[in-house]
Design goal:
heterodimer, A: 115 residues, mainly beta, 11 strands, globular, B: 112 residues, 53% strand
């Protein structure tokens, strides 16, 4: 079983619709992240959470919101989807490794298309 | 300014070749460094951490030069299965510890 899962894996939605992407993890990590990836732009951080009561904006949070429902669950919402939010979205988790570094582990991604 | 820069490639090499990727980072406060591998339409996966003393994992060798602020990845005896995009990643402590800055990746294509 995958340690980090994302649902849905693919979604097509229309402009103006509200959509939620969900992420669950069984790694027991406190830290969770949402990224989007666009061709030629690499991975960009949308929001991150260091524990259930901690939510922080990343590099590109406008148009997005998040909810950390539990240590294992971190969801990303697009309140009113627009076409330039078409992208591949990744959830990730991290924790301090034995070598003292925060290594991140990614879910399989959600491919979102906004028409 | 937080930045991680890589040659986007593509690097097209024959099987068995040795190939090297370089990456530069702009923030001297960066403390942790990694190489991730990403296959097409898949999630990034940690390939290896990069230590000041350099480290090796089988055919892969990573080096860090803090004075020049660059990181390298050497792949020896390339395999077809090495074809992927390699992401240089830096942990930027100026923001929040544990947040990573990703380069845009270098694409490698290994041909028979």
């Amino acid at each position: 079983d995958a340690d980090v899962t994302q649902t849905p894996r693919n979604r097509i939605t229309k402009t103006g619709k509200r959509i939620m992407l969900e992420c669950s993890q069984t790694k027991g990590h406190d830290r969770m992240y949402w990224y989007r990836q666009d061709p030629g732009l690499g991975l960009r951080l949308i929001y991150y959470s260091f524990d259930v009561k901690d939510i922080n904006k990343g590099e590109i949070s406008d148009g997005y919101s998040v909810s950390r429902q539990a240590q294992a669950k971190f969801s990303l919402s697009l309140e009113s989807a627009i076409p330039n939010q078409t992208a591949l979205y990744f959830c990730a988790t991290s924790d301090l490794s034995r070598t003292g570094e925060y290594e991140q582990y990614f879910g399989p991604g959600t491919r979102l298309t906004v028409t | 300014r937080k930045e991680v820069e890589q040659d986007p490639g593509p690097f097209n090499v024959p099987e068995g070749a040795t190939v090297a990727f370089n990456c530069t980072y702009s923030n001297s406060a960066s403390q942790s460094f990694f190489w991730y591998r990403q296959d097409c339409r898949k999630e990034p996966k940690l390939l290896m951490s990069v230590y000041s003393s350099g480290n090796e994992d089988g055919r892969f060798t990573a080096q860090l030069n803090r004075a020049s602020q660059y990181i390298s990845l050497l792949i020896r005896d390339s395999k077809l299965s090495d074809s992927a995009t390699y992401l240089c990643v830096v942990n930027y402590y100026g923001g929040s510890q544990g947040n990573l800055i990703f380069g845009k990746g270098t694409k490698l294509s290994v041909k028979p």
